[in-house]
Design brief:
By secondary structure, the protein is an alpha+beta fold. The protein has one domain: L,D-transpeptidase catalytic domain-like (Beta Barrel). The chain has three helices and eight strands; from the N terminus they run E-E-E-E-E-H-E-H-E-H-E. Strands 3-2-1-8-4-5-6-7 form an eight-stranded mixed sheet, covered by helices on one side. The longest helix is centred in the C-terminal third of the chain and has 10 residues. The chain starts with 14 loop residues before the first strand and ends with a strand. The N terminus is likely disordered.
Length: 151
């Protein structure tokens, strides 16, 4: 089942910004940082995602387009990768662009390890946060919110 999440009263998030080099995810509203979270990335985080299995987190502007409350990780929100440009670039290299890139919490049953897992880049290209951070992001970020992922 796909659920929707309204922003918390008085704090409308109109942009999610990710700085891969600083391992930070920020919720932006009216031009100011409302919340900031430490993140873990894919196992090979440098550079833009090019193909399935490269363990890179995409870079660029996307949309948070749907969510999964029954994810294999504690809740997940989908990032609209690959876009038309990503698909075209993958086609020229004759590779699969990949997909299913999410912001998510810890693997189910391992939330208590969140503090430890966040010390390393362990995902397959997703953006991981602790379960409590994911609960807050889930409540504050509506479907359709843009996300900018920067080096």
């Amino acid at each position: 089942m796909i659920a929707t999440a309204p922003a918390l009263a008085g704090e409308k998030v109109n942009l999610v910004r990710v700085d891969k080099s600083d391992r930070r995810l920020e919720l932006i509203g009216d031009g100011k940082i409302l919340r900031s979270y430490s993140i873990a990335l894919g196992g090979d985080p440098l550079g833009h995602k090019h193909e399935e299995g490269d363990q890179r987190t995409p870079e660029g502007r996307y949309v948070l387009d749907w969510r999964n409350p029954n994810s294999i990780a504690h809740k997940s929100i989908h990032i609209s990768y690959p876009n038309a440009g990503d698909l075209a670039a993958a086609k020229t290299r004759s590779v699969d662009a990949g997909g299913m890139i999410m912001i998510h919490g810890q693997p189910n049953g391992f939330g208590w390890w969140g503090w430890l897992l966040q010390l390393v880049d362990w995902t397959d290209g997703c953006i991981a946060v602790t379960d409590s951070d994911m609960d807050e992001i889930w409540a504050m970020v509506a479907d359709g919110t843009p996300i900018e992922i920067e080096r």
